[in-house]
Write a structure and sequence with these properties.
mainly alpha, 10 helices, globular
Length: about 260
């Protein structure tokens, strides 16, 4: 594995993770949230993830696994890895209480009836739970980049888009509790560092064992994670803001951009 390729994989993961800081800046600088733009962005991100999962990652994973084990066993391993990825991210969601789960995307309101201490604790717990969710996403981005940058770049962009609202979820309660913009931004920024931490873990424990079979398994697992995030988090989140047609237009646009970009490569 070329060292330059590894550094590019780290850079993509860092970019995706630190986009939580963008979300915190939007929350701290903007008085109102542009829900139309947010819905379109969430739909666009889902479109990228779904398209690249089924049209790029799964076929590549099938080729690698079937070449190693034959058609029938390879397909079985592909199916198990895909649904294993879904089970993994779903299990993480199950462990985190719904009230603190960033994948539930609760609306953010200034509830003056809550004590400042409780608000601050909510923001800190949100930062911790987001970090837990970002860790496997960092592994996904890094390992995808080791297999193919053509696949990893759109995945990194999609994860970066869906990390922006998570940054908002951390920054808003801490800022309302403390009145300190720097503290709110710092907590949001640090929660995003879990993604490059996931990349470091993948580098330390997976890189030495890297082979075509592992490439196929990881691609299928990551595809499952991406599909689950799209269907469980991104699209329902856009729906909660009441912009159904905008989010679907973003979804189709994301698929179209992904399709033509892959065609032109």
């Amino acid at each position: 594995m070329e060292s330059q390729h590894v550094w590019v994989a780290f850079a993509l993961t860092l970019f995706a993770g630190l986009s939580t800081g963008i979300g915190s800046l939007l929350a701290l600088l903007a008085k109102r949230t542009d829900t139309r733009f947010l819905c379109a962005s969430l739909g666009f991100s889902a479109g990228i993830m779904i398209y690249v999962s089924f049209m790029e990652m799964m076929p590549e994973a099938r080729m690698q696994l079937c070449s190693a084990y034959g058609e029938k066993p390879g397909m079985l391993y592909l199916i198990l890895a895909f649904f294993g990825g879904i089970a993994l991210i779903n299990l993480i969601d199950f462990w985190v209480p719904e009230s603190l789960n960033p994948h539930e995307m609760h609306e953010l309101k200034d509830d003056t009836g809550q004590a400042e201490r409780r608000l601050q604790r909510t923001g800190i717990l949100a930062a911790l739970t987001i970090a837990v969710h970002n860790f496997p996403e960092g592994i996904a981005t890094f390992t995808s980049a080791l297999g193919s940058l053509d696949i990893a770049i759109p995945i990194a962009v999609a994860i970066a888009i869906h990390n922006i609202p998570e940054g908002v979820a951390v920054a808003v309660p801490i800022y309302h509790a403390t009145g300190n913009r720097k503290k709110a931004f710092r907590a949001s920024f640090l929660s995003g560092l879990a993604e490059p931490a996931g990349a470091l873990a993948a580098y330390a424990f997976l890189l030495r064992f890297w082979n075509p079979v592992l490439t196929g398994i990881v691609l299928a697992v990551v595809a499952g994670i991406m599909v689950f995030i799209s269907l469980d988090e991104l699209l329902p989140s856009a729906e909660r803001y009441g912009k159904h047609h905008v989010s679907i237009a973003g979804l189709v646009a994301g698929m179209a951009v992904m399709a033509f970009s892959l065609y032109l490569i």
